[in-house]
Amino acid sequence: MKRNEHHFLKPETVENTARIFKALADPSRIKILYLLSQETCSVNHIAEMLGMTQSAVSHQLSLLRNLKLVKYNRDGNTYYYTYNDDHVITILNQVIEHVACE
Amino acid sequence: MKRNEHHFLKPETVENTARIFKALADPSRIKILYLLSQETCSVNHIAEMLGMTQSAVSHQLSLLRNLKLVKYNRDGNTYYYTYNDDHVITILNQVIEHVACE
DNA sequence: ACTATATATGAACATATGTTCATATATAGA
DNA sequence: TCTATATATGAACATATGTTCATATATAGT
């Protein structure tokens, strides 16, 4: 095939695609999102469940928040986080199943 | 939910999942895989199409090869690379569509 | 107002990652 | 055997990334 016979992705599309995969490319974030796929959780609850420090969890939630992959509802001092992108959760589960059955 | 009411992923599953997403978390590799999803390509062809050096392409193919996401057939001096994991290609296309329609 | 609690955030640090450059390897052709 | 071609690979480098530590912010209870 020659150059103009290929379909090329727009640079913007490539960057945005990489951004999504980068968000999922870390064990801590995978565990956080998998947990949130089962239940809305406070920051401390996530930290306890996953054996992470509060700070580490908060930094990762900040990243996921910026990508709009999670959102939160505040109740007093407590922030309850929820996933915010069904499609990304679906893709996460697909890959988990993909690697689990091999 | 309490600890034992959650489903937890095995550490191995988390690691393998992260490995797949890491492979897809780079613009160069996204472009390479997207190109290979359309056509079997030699290393030089990939480099020319994507405006990358031969060395950079080769390093990335080496990484994708180790993860068994691509394979190659050799013909003399030329290595023809093909994708080797339909499921991963499907997931790549899903995310591309996901980010394209927003 | 004071204290405790929950979370966010910035700086610093170590590690991982992607590219480049130089070079090695291997095959084909003369 | 000499040369050209195609690819792989190691070292070096700059940048990105994830955690920790210290601290800031904000709310609730007394």
Detailed description of the structure:
Two copies of one chain form a homodimer. Chain A has one domain (11-100): Winged helix-like DNA-binding domain superfamily/Winged helix DNA-binding domain (Arc Repressor Mutant, subunit A), CATH 1.10.10.10. In chain A, a hairpin with a 2-residue loop joins β2 and β3 (78-83). Chain A is an alpha+beta fold and 102 residues long. In chain A, 28% of the residues are buried. Chain A starts with 10 loop residues before the first helix and ends with a helix. Chain A is 58% helix and 14% strand. Chain A is built from five helices and three strands; from the N terminus they run ααβααββα. Chain A has a three-stranded antiparallel sheet. The A-B interface holds A 1, 3, 6-7, 9, 13-22, 24-27, 30-31, 34-35, 38-39, 48-49, 87-88, 91-92, 94-96, 98-100 and B 1, 3, 6-7, 9, 13-22, 24-27, 30-31, 34-35, 38-39, 48-49, 87-88, 91-92, 94-96, 98-100. The structure holds a DNA duplex (30 and 30 nucleotides).
Structure, briefly:
With 102 residues, chain A is α+β, with helices and mostly antiparallel strands. Helices cover 58% and strands 14% of the residues of chain A.
